[in-house]
Design a protein that fits this description.
alpha/beta; Aspartate Aminotransferase, domain 1; 12 strands; 15% strand
Length: 356
């Protein structure tokens, strides 16, 4: 490509983007394993619900037609599952986040983010030309509510994750309400992992016109490969969101899988029970400090080793975990480890304790 043409690429895309964990295939090939423990991506280890699979099989009959752009069947299922709320959908929660930023933010306007946290909020905001303000958490990774409110003043949209990725930290509904009451703009509360906690923020939607609560089908529902997310939104946003959204983004099979998965509460409860049991075992058995949290993963302090060093050493032993170096605002001596199958968790504990 001629240099003169390549120079047209926006500066933001000449920098590092989202950082992925190394693939299981790469690890297996590099170190000679037939299988590796996949504990880096916060996936559900059980495979999809049989009800989701059956729904997908039925939906293959209509793959030659465009999907319902309003996600009608899924929205109905979400109402059955959650109650009387307004919903929108997207390609993963990432897609919902991108569309919300597109609706609200003009180039040069302010977006506030509680850090350390999921890096995609900042990447998506910068892609829209926003000025990103990172608001540090306390040393224990809890949210300083007053500091957050002050720093987020004037932001068109602010992002806060609970349980937070990658720290697992919980922010109480009372603190979220205080923030939503005080902000001039919209608060996007990322609840991707909330099913694994004891907290419920849904009732806040009935009292706040500036609150969006993002959810995903990737975690407790076991549909990461389908890439489907959704959000509770205030009623004023729904028609505007539809105008801003890319047409037909959520495909027919993903819509069917999500609709079917919402009918399988037994699967959900089994997943939650499995996660909670192993999280407790991580905390009591791992020789490195395990931080408190409420997700399907834990963050572990690897000091004096760096997160990269520890992740590499574990990969050489057939265990994939996520180094937290790339998370904004986080020191480089942490790894994030999700709950996998029993054998994967056992292998992780064996190998992490050998590194101590």
């Amino acid at each position: 490509m001629p240099q003169s043409v390549k120079s047209l690429v926006r500066e933001i895309y000449q920098q590092e983007g989202y950082v992925y964990a190394r693939s299981p295939e790469e690890i297996a090939k590099t170190y000679g394993f037939t299988q590796v423990a996949r504990l880096a991506s916060n996936e559900n280890p059980f495979g999809p619900s049989p009800k989701a699979v059956a729904a997908v099989q039925e939906a293959t009959r209509t793959m030659h037609r465009y999907p319902d752009t309003g996600s009608g069947d899924l929205v109905h299922a979400l109402n059955e599952y959650h109650g009387d709320f307004e919903f929108v959908t997207g390609v993963g929660m990432d897609g919902v986040i991108e569309t919300c930023i597109r609706v609200l933010v003009n180039p040069g306007e302010k977006v506030a983010i509680s850090v350390p946290t999921f890096s995609f909020y900042g990447l998506a905001a910068k892609a829209q030309g926003a000025e990103v303000i990172n608001i540090p958490r306390r040393n224990d990774f809890s949210v300083d509510v007053d500091a957050f409110i002050t720093a987020a003043k004037g932001a068109k949209i602010s992002f806060l994750c609970s349980p937070n990725n990658p720290t697992g930290t919980l922010t109480s509904p009372e603190d979220i309400e205080r923030i939503a009451d005080a902000l001039e703009g919209v608060l996007f509360l990322d609840n991707a992992y909330v099913e694994f906690s004891d907290l419920d923020y849904r009732d806040l939607m009935h009292r706040h016109e500036n609150l969006i609560i993002g959810r995903t089908m990737s975690k407790v529902f076991g549909l990461a490969g389908c890439r489907i997310g959704y959000a509770f939104i205030p009623s004023w946003l729904k028609p505007i969101y539809a105008t801003a959204a890319t047409p037909f983004t959520v495909n027919t099979l993903s819509l069917a899988a999500a609709t079917g998965a919402l009918t399988d509460q037994e699967y959900v409860e089994r997943s939650i029970s499995h996660v909670r049991s192993w999280i407790q075992k991580f905390r009591t058995t791992c020789k490195m400090p395990v931080l408190p949290g409420g997700a399907n993963f834990v963050m572990i302090d690897t000091a004096p080793k760096t997160g990269d060093e520890c992740a590499k050493a574990l990969a050489e032993r057939g265990v994939i975990v996520r180094s937290c170096r790339s998370f904004p605002g986080l020191a480089d001596h942490y790894i994030r480890v999700c709950v996998g199958e029993d054998w994967e968790c056992e292998q992780f504990l064996t190998e992490i304790n050998r590194l101590c």
